[in-house]
Specification:
Layout (H helix, E strand, L loop, with lengths): L5 E5 L3 H13 L3 E5 L2 H11 L3 E4 L8 H10 L7 E6 L4 H9 L4 E4 L4 H13 L2
Parallel strand pairs: 1-2, 1-3, 3-4, 4-5
């Protein structure tokens, strides 16, 4: 059997992580969770996920900081980063571009749509 894709969910809201985990695991993805930027960075270094769904508003560093760190590191720059945030102003989107996120999704969002985007990125790259 083919190894399943590893996805890291980074959000400080347990409810969001739980629902996304459920939808992603139903599709056969291996899901890791983090609640902070620091925890996310530790999981990235250890597990090397294929894709990260990353909230921007986190305790400590922001999701923008984490994305910039992932994309700036030669060992992790190919990880797909999806910023998933309530921040929907033009300057937020521009900051997402600056840190080289692959996709920017605003909350709230139907989990099925997020799973479809994840599948699109993982299976078409």
């Amino acid at each position: 059997m083919k190894e399943s894709y590893r996805i890291l969910l980074v959000d400080d809201e347990a409810g969001i992580r739980n629902i996304l985990r459920l939808f992603l695991e139903l599709e056969g993805f291996a899901v890791f969770e983090a609640v902070s930027a620091n925890q996310a960075q530790q999981i990235v270094e250890k597990e090397k996920p294929h894709l990260i769904i990353l909230d921007v508003i986190l305790c400590g560093q922001t999701g923008f900081d984490v994305c910039e760190w992932v994309k700036g590191n030669p060992e992790t720059r190919d990880i797909i980063v999806v910023l998933f945030t309530a921040l929907n102003q033009n300057h937020d989107l521009k900051e997402g571009e600056r840190v080289k996120c692959d996709y920017y999704i605003t909350k709230p969002q139907n989990p099925k749509i997020i799973v479809e985007k994840v599948k699109q990125y993982l299976y078409n790259t």
